[in-house]
Amino acid sequence: MKPLLPGLAVAITLAVTACATTTSPTGRTQQVGAVPQQQLNQMGAQAFAEYKAKLPQSNDAGQTAYMRCVVSAVTRQLPSNMQANWESALFVNKEPNAFALPGGKVGLYTGIFTVARNQDQLAGVVAHEIGHVVSRHHDERVTRQLGAQAGLGILGALVGSQYGSGAAQATQQLGGAAVQAAFLLPNNRQQESEADIVGQRLMAQAGFDPREAVDLWQNMIAAGGNRGPEWLSTHPDPQNRIAELRARAADLMPVYQQARAAGRTPDCG
């Protein structure tokens, strides 16, 4: 386990009280700012480095290029200050999972291809995860965690294993890291709904069919059987989510069509 970046623990402790109220992309009030954005980016980079050190990466050049093509198409639609230097990695793991981190990091598990069955569906996954970053959900969660536990020994390990019980167990084993929880434990339902909204628009702007987000989530539910995957437990009700995705897809068709007319026609394979 690598130590926190030099000075980061002190900076976080000093910044706990320097929170701000802002508005999310959907108009929701957020408390953010306990950690400066530059250091959030450093934390994201360190977490990503830990992932790459702990999990095997795929040797499938075709799948890796496919993933990077989709990530590139989506990130080109971000605000100019968020476009540069996105890094992605494909990890060998049968779970249909993905994540994005501050600092421009995207990780996908090879199992995601069992539910994201074309480039539009994969863009739905990638855009949703990037939607968490755009919406400052990591900032929000770090701020909330640090505010709740200011003064305690909460600056331990950044990275455990994967979402769900694995990450919770790793948090306990590695010393109760609030920062880790803020980065890797499942997002709450409000944040998930917001990432759906932001991500579905982002994929349409990139020239991916927003209607495919509906099929993607139907595939995800089917992959979990009656019980559903554990990592869906903190997500909005699946049927409500699908209904909302379907309604938004209809509204986003002009955005998608405009993107295609402007030459944004991804061909990732």
UniProtKB/TrEMBL annotation:
The keyword Zinc applies. Pfam families: Peptidase_M48. Belongs to the peptidase M48 family. Residues 63-248 form the Peptidase M48 domain. InterPro entries: Mito/Outer_Membr_Metalloprot, Peptidase_M48. Transmembrane segments: none annotated. Its cofactor is Zn(2+). Residues 1-20 form the signal peptide. Binds 1 zinc ion per subunit. It comes from the Bacteria. GO terms for cellular component: membrane. Keywords: Hydrolase, Metal-binding, Metalloprotease, Protease, Signal, Zinc. This is Peptidase. GO terms for biological process: proteolysis involved in protein catabolic process. The keyword Protease applies. GO terms for molecular function: metal ion binding; metalloendopeptidase activity.
